[in-house]
Amino acid sequence: MALTGIQIFKHLPQTNCKECGVPTCLAFAMNLASGKAELDSCPHVSNEARETLAEASAPPIRPVKIGKGVRKTTTGGETVMYRHEKTFYHPTLLAATITSDTSSEATSQKLKGWNALQYERVGLNLRPELVALRDVNGDGKTFATLAELIATTSEFNLILISDNIDVLKKGIEKAGFKRPLLYAATAENIDQLGPLAAENDLPLCLRGNSIDELLTLSEKAEKLGLKDLVLDPGSRLPKQSLEDMVQLRRAALQKGNRALGFPTITFPCEMASNLDVETMLAALYISKYGGIVVMSDFAPESIFPLLLERLNIFTDPQRPMTVTEGIFEIGNPDENSPVLVTTNFALTYFIVSGEIEASKVPAWLLIKDSEGLSVLTAWAAGKFGGDDVGAFVKKSGIMDKVKHTELIIPGYAAAIAGDIEEELPGWTITVGPRESAHLPGFLKARQ
Fold first, then answer.
1. pLDDT at residue 1 above 50?
2. How many domains in the chain?
């Protein structure tokens, strides 16, 4: 950070109002200096102080927004080399390629198939975000037509790829409202493409033949007033490309080089001859350190494991994965279906819900917030006590969905049965099996 905690403290209102979430302004300043807080958390900071502290509060890798609408997304904004140091914030964006010589009908079919590649995990909808439209024939009219088709008929955001600035202009005319990423400014065309990006307020990718050339391009882009940049060091051999990704990250995070403090883009589609190898390379760049990964195509067998890898890497390692507290319907339950309760630890939820589905017995599964702890750990930590579970059942709304008054609790939480009965007079508390693998047999035997 450019400023120390004490230097930042001098610019804060020093009211110790606690609205930022910490007890004192000095503590907030220290968090801001170490990258553990954002300046926007302070509601009373003056505009003058905000300008002064902007550099101190900005992440070393600038977050760059791509797209508009419900699927607008962000790449960059990272603050650490390794996720165990803190966390990674903005997951690698995944893109597939459509070439400008593809017919409108074929493009629509591809978009329809790609849009179906959505997977529910841990209460999250996992899906790819981008389509890279690549100019292959210099036909600006066709390029613009496909850009408009993608922008208006799909939820995907766009990367417009062409070495012809006139072609990019045509694409911007039809799809600029979607805030696409323009690819790419080089030493030869940045004087023309830079102002075009600035005029339309669009993010711009810089492509160099080396990191040194990227540094020069970035400094020139800054003079043109461009801030939303994405970097491509130009390497297309996997070994060199990986080395460049690591060097760019180190330059921004460890050496404080703001000119290289931008997210990166990689092209496995240009490094491999088939989708299988592309997928392996994409997996590499998700972990080190691609902000955007462009593939030739999306296929279920490749995109699903990539989305899962991305989810794992970009989950805060200091906090357990959780699901949202509430009522989950499994197998179309009715008013007579059994009601079970467990914690919101993601692994617990998936195992328990999977075993209930395997039993073919429709059921209501209540998920109580236990701060991501498993049943036994939550009980030991006082996060899954009888009083708390009883109160949760009352407020959950399950009483409006069922006629019976029986609650099935995990076997490992048998000790809280009495406390739940006191909290829920008239309810029968049944202790279920200790192991979720025994749930199917337990539920079937009750039918």
1. no
2. 3
